[in-house]
Amino acid sequence: MTHRLDDIIALFDGLFLSRYRTRLISGEDEPLYLPADDVVPYHRVIFAHGFYASALHEISHWCIAGDRRRQLEDYGYWYQPDGRDAEQQQVFESVEVAPQALELLFSRACLHPFNVSVDNLGGPEVDRARFRERVEARAARYEAEGVPTRAEAFRQMLKAFYQQQASRTDAIHIGKQWLRSRQELRV
């Protein structure tokens, strides 16, 4: 299975650009979310170094962020860089469980390998297996209780494109139909 960046970018933009004014951008450096401003009329989900897994991870953060958070750079969250102590790492992991659970569901939908990210190479030893268990448990809870609306629309689109070999256009249409059906349920 080939996972091309131009596919994931076109799929994301096709599903979310018109309704949410948000684009997926392959970045040169660290990932970042930038809201629209006076110069750029759309929000930008920028993923790191052209990595497919980074795109899925950053999309998962965007799918969780509410309206207010999506108006703030990096959703208004702090990021403690590599080299966190044990307490800082525990805080990092607690806020990363939900997005990484969505990333796991996205990875399954597009048949892409998933690895948890503890993101702390310069810090103390981290129990990756324990963190993976927490991520898998959260993914199972999402499956049982429901995935956030934008995340589920994205996941349905990924399944159509990667598992059912739908064209980009058809996969985007499936994702948009899913979004519309959820919006109609709210009315």
TrEMBL record:
User: What is this protein's record name?
Assistant: Elongation factor P hydroxylase
